[in-house]
Amino acid sequence: MNLLTQLELKMHFTESENILAQYILEHGEEVVKMSIHTFAKKTYSSPATIVRLAKKCGLSGFNDLKITLAKELSLHTSKEIDPNFPFDKDDDFNTIINNLTLLHKETIDDSAALLDQKTLNQCVKLLDKADSIDLYGLGNSLLVAQSFAHNMMRIGKQVNFRTMAGEQGFLARVSNPKHVAIIISYSGETDEIIRIAKTLKKQKTKIIAITSLGDNQLSHYSDLILHISSKEKIFNKMAPFSSLLSIQYICTMLYACFFSLNYNEHKAFKLHYDYEEDLRHPFYSPINEK
């Protein structure tokens, strides 16, 4: 898990460390230029507390924290549009439209750069060999999962996903080595998702994780990892504009590459399904293609 995400989640921090974490999130660019003593004075803390916070984040000390922070801030500020708040309260509709359009383009470019083709190829081969593909995720991730499952179903590939509370845990328990699991989690740290991942490992099910960059818990249980564009904060944001689009992009690439493995067969199945089962238009409508 990257440093900024750890600071935002405040996992296992003391009250004093929470104050330090919040200060870094709000004044990161200033902190990078501070000495440990200046930072301690600004936050009414001590150098020892600052070092403890750094070590809880997997870093050796304050200098290591500053180096890591500077790198992550450069990623977050290298683009023109803030993915967390892409427009301000005084912006007109035209500015909002332009900013979100640019954010979408930046997110797609970032997602494409993160997509490792060797890993994608391995994922597609796993999906092709699987008797069943099982999708796991919470909240907004399920919206993308549902679309992916729908597309796969229309080319004849069985995909399971559950939306009711607790059902994903049961789905994991009845999994087996002939299944492949796709787990979608931006943070990779959600308790329910980690429990599901642990269960799947016990069932010897291969796991494909769609998650953010960094050393999160989910990545430790996964066989293959596809990375989401990770410039968005967990809580402090307007909406998951960037992360949801990045997840959708990855799932689209998975579907498209899977389709290409048996292109003619999948095309024939898809067109036959649409002609026979898609009831959006009356049979005798002049716009029906049949």
UniProtKB/TrEMBL annotation:
Domain SIS, first and last residues per copy: 123-264
Pfam families referenced in this protein's UniProt entry, alphabetically: HTH_6 (PF01418), SIS (PF01380)
CDD domains: SIS_RpiR (cd05013)
Domain HTH rpiR-type: 1-76
A molecular function (GO) term: DNA binding
Gene3D superfamilies for this protein: Glucose-6-phosphate isomerase like protein, domain 1, Winged helix-like DNA-binding domain superfamily/Winged helix DNA-binding domain
Protein's UniProt name: Transcriptional regulator
Originating species: Kandleria vitulina DSM 20405
